[in-house]
Amino acid sequence: AAKNDGRGRARTFNRSMMIMLEQRETLRRSLRVALKEQQFFIEYQPLVEVSEGIVGFEALLRWRHPFAGVIPPNVFIPMAEADGLMGDIGAWVLEEACREASTWPSHFIVAVNLSPAEFLRGGFTDRVAGILDEVRFPAERLEIEITETVLLERTTNNLDILHTLEVLGVRIALDDFGTRYSSLSYLQNFPFDTIKIDRHFIKDVETNPKSQTIVRFVIGLAHGLGMRITAEGVETAGQATWLRREKCDRLQGRLLGAPMSSEAIGDFLRQGSFAAGWIS
Ligand code: C2E
Ligand code: MG
Ligand code: MG
Ligand code: MG
């Protein structure tokens, strides 16, 4: 009985916390060499337009650690940001993703996530223009995904940066909408092409009337503002059917295709399996 009391649990918890913290320190140190050692790679997840089928892929960063295996972005990106490494890593992702995308069908877009640190580093739009030029990739085929966290930072002129990107022809998507500090004033002031509604609201959209109300509201909001709406985390045919009925423009999630290696894209497109699961 003694080992099940509160104190026993607390001791165990503290020990594993310590081990976790030590591992995090070790991870942080190895993160510093990961870029040089080419340990990063990108997986691509299909973006499916309800009316046209697949229109491109979102680039999702992974870190293949030499001993720990593949580490997901939610674990290492915050560390990279804290250590000031995300600027260089982000530039690598952008260049690699555009290079890869130039081998896809010529109407496909590539969506690249952007962290606040990259935005804040200054000279961001020049770097984007430089990379597009070097890889000879048309700006119209690049979609940059930002979260509301980026817009919270008021130290640089976010609006100027977004407008400069817009002038370049780059599209801008507002990612994870509804989960953070959603403010309608962003939608009034920023030239978003697409709003991505977070998978939190999609999870139970078939059964939960509150989720349904929120998703309907966001779809109407986006369309009223002339923006496209993407649903994230679509896992079931029922969700897809519901979203299609409510005039959601784009779907993304395991139902349409899980993130895949660049080598797997060719087969995926040839099989056309992205459409089979949800068109009914
Ligand atoms: P995100 O941009 O919202 O990306 C979607 C996440 O949902 C991805 O997680 C994807 O694997 C996952 N997902 C896709 N379909 C489903 C589904 O049907 N069900 C569920 N439960 N999940 C699904 P991932 O790859 O672990 O990435 C997590 C986050 O890390 C991303 O969220 C994005 O914010 C960030 N991230 C990824 N790559 C980059 C990058 O290159 N740069 C920056 N700054 N952030 C990145
Ligand atoms: Mg994203
Ligand atoms: Mg998202
Ligand atoms: Mg998300």
What does this structure look like?
The protein contains 13 helices and 9 strands. The chain has helices at about 5-35, 75-80, 85-100, 115-120, 125-135, 150, 160-170, 185-190, 200, 210-225, 235-245, 265-270, 275, and strands spanning about 40-50, 55-65, 70, 110-115, 140-145, 170-175, 195, 230, 250. An 8-stranded mixed beta barrel has the order 1-2-4-5-6-7-8-9. The longest helix is centred in the N-terminal third of the chain and has 29 residues, at about 5-35. It is globular. Mean pLDDT is about 90; it is low at about 1-10. The site of one magnesium ion has 4 residues, from loops. One magnesium ion binds near residues 176 and 232.
How many H/I helices?
13
Kindly, what is the distance between the CA atoms of the first and last residues, rounded to a whole number of angstroms? 56 Å
Bound molecules: ligand C2E, magnesium ion
Low-confidence stretches: 1-8
Strand content: 15-25%
Major β-sheet, in short? 8 strands, mixed, barrel
Strand order, sheet with most strands = 1-2-4-5-6-7-8-9
Evaluate the radius of gyration.
20 Å
Given helix and strand content, the structural type is: alpha/beta
